[in-house]
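Thread amino acids onto this structure.
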């Protein structure tokens, strides 16, 4: 489960954010500059330090720990909606004031819900959990931006009902919901899971019985073709990708500040975030 909620408090800023978010989706196209020089050849001095082929029915617990994974749900799933929030706010700032709107602080909490006594005593178990995991399976953070707006990011591996990728924008004069997954483009009902036994419904769903939301084109709705298109265009046209290195740096900086916040029980300043 990954959820992003953007809340804009000042009325004027709320209106501006909604307008810029709409424009962002409409004008993300390539530049006219084409690359004429060949890209540099990759270095041959690379050494593989970690890999996972995902070739078994369960996760390899020796590989997915804090030391090699860097975190749990907050990092593995929360990075996606966080990247969206940081991108939209930065783009809004560039369009409206000539400089990105920056995150200034984060307050967070994490938990290992599958490690609680109540969960261990429950039966039957429907969640696919990893015994002995040393990372969180639930996390939530509040990011404050330098224009006074707030993004609430929640992520969890301990959620029934299949994957949930949702975005909500709350403004002074409008509300926008984006139901990436699940959405109701297609709805199906089966009284018994055997009816759809051989069919793919949606990611991480526990049963195919009852009402479900099959995805007619899950990859497109999730944005994978668009991501690859932008990456290829950035190489071919020698331009910065929309998901740039600076954005990746900010995502990691905010998430690890969130881990520090959860560990120390305090709000953490992000004064060192890049422009």
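Threaded sequence (275 positions):
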């Amino acid at each position: 489960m990954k959820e992003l909620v953007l809340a804009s408090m000042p009325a004027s800023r709320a209106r501006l954010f909604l307008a810029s978010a709409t424009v962002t989706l409409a004008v993300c196209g390539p530049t006219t500059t084409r690359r004429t020089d060949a890209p540099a050849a990759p270095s041959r001095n690379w050494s593989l330090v970690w890999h996972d082929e995902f070739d078994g029915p369960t996760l390899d617990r020796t590989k997915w720990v804090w030391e090699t994974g860097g975190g749990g749900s907050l990092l593995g799933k929360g990075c996606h909606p966080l990247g969206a929030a940081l991108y939209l706010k930065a783009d809004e700032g560039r369009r409206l004031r000539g400089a990105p709107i920056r995150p200034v602080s984060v307050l967070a909490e994490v938990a290992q819900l599958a490690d609680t006594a109540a969960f261990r005593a429950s039966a039957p178990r429907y969640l696919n959990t990893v015994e002995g995991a040393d990372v969180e399976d639930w996390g939530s953070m509040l990011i404050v931006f330098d224009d006074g707006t707030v993004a609430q990011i929640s992520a969890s591996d301990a959620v029934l009902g299949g994957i949930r990728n949702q975005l909500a924008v709350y403004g002074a004069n409008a509300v926008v919901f984006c139901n990436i997954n699940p959405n109701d483009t297609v709805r199906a009902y089966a009284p018994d899971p055997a009816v759809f036994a051989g069919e793919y419904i949606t990611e991480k769903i526990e049963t195919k019985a009852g009402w479900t939301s099959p995805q007619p084109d899950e990859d497109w709705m999730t944005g994978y073709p668009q991501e690859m298109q932008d990456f290829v265009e950035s190489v071919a046209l020698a331009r910065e990708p929309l998901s740039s290195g600076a954005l990746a740096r900010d995502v990691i900086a905010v998430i690890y500040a969130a881990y520090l916040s959860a560990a120390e029980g305090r709000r953490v300043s992000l004064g060192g975030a890049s422009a």
